[in-house]
Structure formats: structure tokens, C-alpha cells
Amino acid sequence: MFRKALLAAAALGALVAHSAQAEDLKEFRIGIIGGENEADRLRNFQCMVDKLPAAIGVEKVSLFPAADYDGTIQGLLGGTLDYAELGASGFAKIYLADAKAVEPILTTVQTDGATGYYSIMVARKDSGIKTLADLKGKKLGFADPDSTSGYLIPSVTLPKDLGGAAVKDYFSETGFGGGHENLVLEVLKGTFDAGTTWGSGVGDFSEGYTSGNLRKMVDKGILDMDDLTEIWKSPLIPNGPIVVRTSLDADIKSKFKDFMINLPKADPACFSAIQGGDFTGYTEVTTEFYQPIIDARKAQIGS
Questions:
Q1: Which pTM was predicted?
Q2: How confident is the model at residue 21 (pLDDT cuts 50, 70, 90)?
């Protein structure tokens, strides 16, 4: 009798939990990291709002553009977002704070088959700056404290190319541009002598490469690549992950993953809009793929 009561209680508990979970999934919440004009970000992700509800079985899909990277990171840590696309450093920050908050499921594949991209340092072409040596004692701008290409990787790898000098000692001043797009605009305005952004490194610099911030700015008509010159390029960085809330309903998670994997062929325009350039598609990833970035971020925090 006691055993039957326990089983009945367990069944009731499971039913209540399932109902609560289903209630949570009426709205699928998409986080969009900062660094680009908000209207552009909302427009680029509108196709997800239109297509996802039917594909994954929810009533509504909502977009939550953050002012900066950390806004999206905190939303994922707090469980108020269900999906976002992050840089590897942003994922590392979440993982180091709560390894069970989100899980990486997919990343993009470049047109040359690579699953990585580069930090690209640019300066105004008319500045006379052509090399890192020309930048000694000048102002360097980073994109965002939580950006992989815009801060973490340059801060970790630049010293080797600066003859072992620390970034803070080599440059007269460093600062943040408020996201990749704004950073490039600040370089053009002269706020910084050079700045770090990101690009695929595939194709021609003169076109902003095949994908990345420079390419997005060119496509929007707010950047003429003839105004910039490339000063430095980092080692290859793992493409950032598509992450989902770990506690998300397994069926929804599976349907969402299938939707994304099929998106490049099912709706190439939507795929290109949300990714910001030309990619061949997605490939599956796990936390292990980002372990070097997690280690780099952990080392930076401890330094």
C-alpha cells in the first residue's frame, strides 16, 4: 500500500513538473548579443520569429537584444533566455560561472570548411599606421570585455607579437568601443588609432572577407574598406557556439537543433541574416571544442 502511494505521488509530481515545463515553453526567448545597431539585429532575426513557432511547437518567439555581451550572458545564466549565439569567450564566461546553465550544440562552418575565424586589427588607411611597430605608444580599442576576438584573444596573443611586451605597456591607452560595429566607427572617427574586430579571414580584406563584422558593415553600406588597413590578425579562433538552456525540454531542444541544421538550405536568406555573411552551414559541437578558450579566460581572470 505504501509502495502504491509512493508511486502515485511520484506520478503526480511528474505530471505537475511536465505541466510547468510545458507552460514555460509557450514562449521561446532568443537573446541577441550587443555590438550592432538594435534595429538591424531585430530585423535580421525576424525570420526566426516568423518560422520557429511552427517548427518547434511554441506559441510565440520573442527577441531580447542586449546593450552589450554581458546582458545576454546574464540572461542565459538566469534562465530567462532559451537560445543565443555567443562568441567562445562569452560561452566560457557562462561555463566558468555555471557549467550546467547552457550547452553548446552547433557552430558555423566557413566557406573554406574551417570552424574558426580571426581577430582582425584595423586602422585608418590614411593614418600611416601599417604595422604593430607603428602603433607603439598609441591608442588601441577593443570591442567588448566579453568578446573573444574583440578582447580576450588579442589580450592573450598580442604580447608574443609585441616582442613580449604587455598590452598595457606597449600602448599609451586602451579602451572599449561598445561592440564591434561601434569600435570600427570609433577607429574611423579617430577615437582609437587601431581597434580589434572579427572576420572569417577567408576571401578578400577589401570586401570585408566572406563574413564577420567588417563584412556586415560593408553590406549595410556604413563602411568602405578603402578607408581601413589590416594591421594584425590573430591565430584561428573557434567559431562561437549556438547555445540552448540546458533545462530546456528535450523535445523542443531536438526540434530546434533540427531546424537550425536545415536552415541554410531551407531558408538561405534567413541563415545569412542571422549569421552575418557567407557560411556553408552548421556543425555539431560540445564543450570540449571550447576548452582552450575556457582555459584562456580562466587564466586571464586569475592573472
A1: 0.84
A2: very low
Helix (H, G, I), strand (E, B) or coil at 293: helix
Query: For residue 303, what pLDDT band results from cuts at 50, 70 and 90?
Result: very low
Strand partners, 232: 121
For residue 172, give the amino acid letter. Answer: S
- Domain ranges, ordered by start, for the chain: 27-110+239-301, 116-237
> Within 13 Å of residue 218, how many CA atoms lie on the same side as its CB?
20
CA gap 183, 229 in Å, rounded:
15
Distances in whole angstroms, Cα of residue 83 to Cα of each of 14, 57, 186, 292: 25, 15, 30, 23
Residue position matching grid coordinates 523542443: 252
Superfamily per CATH, domain 27-110+239-301:
Periplasmic binding protein-like II (3.40.190.10)
Architecture of the domain made up of 116-237: 3-Layer(aba) Sandwich (3.40)
